[in-house]
Structure formats: C-alpha cells, structure tokens
C-alpha cells in the first residue's frame, strides 16, 4: 500500500510539473526531462510563480491589463463622441439639401441653424486649443484668439436648451434608423418585423457580430494553420514520391531484370512441353482416325490388293524389259527397218479402215 501511494504521489507531482511547464512560454518538456534535471525542475516551479504563459511577470501583466482597460474605456468614449459628431454632420448635410426644397418649417430651420452654430464654435474651439496634441507643450493661440472669444457666436440660452432637447431625440432617431438598417443588412428577413422586434434584435446584434467576428478569426486561424500544413505536405509529398520512385527503380533492377532470364527459361520450357503434348495429341488423333478407318479385314484386303498389284507390276516390268530388248534389236537393224515399220504401220491402218468399211456395208445391207 505504501509503495502504491508513493507511485501515485510521484505521478501527481510529475503531472503538476508538466502542467506548470505548459503554462510557461514555449517550453516543450517531457516527464523524463524533468526527472533527469531536478534542479531545473525546481527553477521552473519558482519561475512559474512570477510569470504567466506569455512570459511577462505577474506585476507587469497586471499593469498591462489595467492599461488595456483604460485604453478600452477611452476608445469607447472616443467612439461615442465620434459617432455623435458624424451624426450631427450628416444632419447638417441633410439640412443643406432640405434648404433647396419647400416644406421646411421655421422651427426646423431655427433648430438646424442653432446646431450649425454650435458645431462651428466647437470645431473652432478645438482648433484654438493651446495645448499641443502630442507633447503637451504650450503654444501661442491661433490668430491671437481664445475660446472665450467665440462664446458670443453661440445661440441664445433658450434656443440652446430647445436645440439640445430636440438634438437628443434626433440623435436617438438617427441611431435607431442606422441600427435598423444595419440589422436589415445583416438579417434581411427582419425587414418585415415590427419596430419592437427589430429593437429586440438590434439589442443582440452587437453580441451576434462579436460572436461572428470571433468565429471568423478562429476560421482564419484554422485556415492559416491548414495552409501551413498544406505547404508542408506540398514540400513533403514530392520527396516521398521521389523515394518511392527510387524504391521502384531498385526493385525493377534487382528483382525484375534478374529474374527475367529465369522467367523466360521457364516460359520456353513450358511452351516446348506444350508443343510436344500437342504433337503427341495430334499423332494420337491421327492414329485413332486410321484405326477407325482401316479395320483388320480392310487391312487384310488391302494386303491382298497390294500383293496383286506387286505381281502386276513385276509382270509389267518384265514386259517393259522385253520390249526394251526388242527395241534395242530393232535399233541395231538401221534406217531400212524404220521404213519397213512405217510401211507396216500404214498397211495396218488401211486394213483396219477396210474392216470398218466392210462392217458398215454389212450393216447397211440388212
């Protein structure tokens, strides 16, 4: 039991160390590295108490967070004032356009004139600010004018109060229209909704856009990561293909070409054996045809016929031999004998013709 508890305690200690190392700046350590370097492990534990995962000290991180919060608040205030200022400029531009159209009431004209005077005084006051924009050093006022010199160009107190009250309502209306326009652009299906439903959706629009922005940033990071992996694969795949080609070339040279002669020899032996088998099969078929065609009786008869033909051939050969001897004897007699032979042949032909004529005469007499 004690051994088991020691093992579990050491395992928990190692897991704690790995977790601490993962919270530090890029520090890829394994359990084996930590176990082999105990002093370095102790140093990491001490450092982790004074640093965060970005490498900053705890106090500096706190100051940085406070500065970022102040910057966020100032940026928010600046954006608010910038939005109001742009809305006022748009209202004044619309007023200048409406001046060319009939239907502008005296109350509206008075409101816009008071607003334009206040806007001009405010802009001139910013230009006359004696404080430097960056260094904060004092500088002489522009044209020798000061801000109090412009107070006389403001409208009367009553007109100023009325303009301020209406300005709040006008800015609210302008902001509501812009929010609804932005909502309809982002969600076209909201065009047919009521103002209450549009207002409810517009109140959630900032959170929705923030979620979409985070999702878009996440997708961009994933896309960047995937592009990095793709580039790695593009550089890795050609090398793998080249290694595969080298292996294929080696296999072709060492195995295919070396075994080709043996394969060709085996193929030649196979074809030779197959041709011998086909020849023997053809001979067997021929013998079977001959055996079926010539039975023992036919063979015996053929043997008898062959014997008769042999005897006839022998007789003919003897006749030919005797005729040759006679011809040789006649050739010895000379050309006179040839004349006698021709005459004998002519007489024999006339005798045959006369016999034929007598025979025909005998047929005609009947």
Automatic annotation (TrEMBL):
Lineage: Eukaryota, Metazoa, Chordata, Craniata, Vertebrata
GO biological process, alphabetically ordered: centrosome cycle; spindle assembly
Protein name, as recorded: HAUS augmin-like complex subunit 4
UniProt organism field: Microcaecilia unicolor
Keyword Endoplasmic reticulum set for record: no
Keywords attached to this entry: Coiled coil
Name of the gene: LOC115482131
Any Gene Ontology CC annotation: HAUS complex
Entries under Pfam families matching the protein: HAUS4
Record flagged with keyword Coiled coil: yes
Coiled coil: 157-226
Bilayer-spanning residue ranges: none
MF terms (GO), sorted A to Z: microtubule minus-end binding
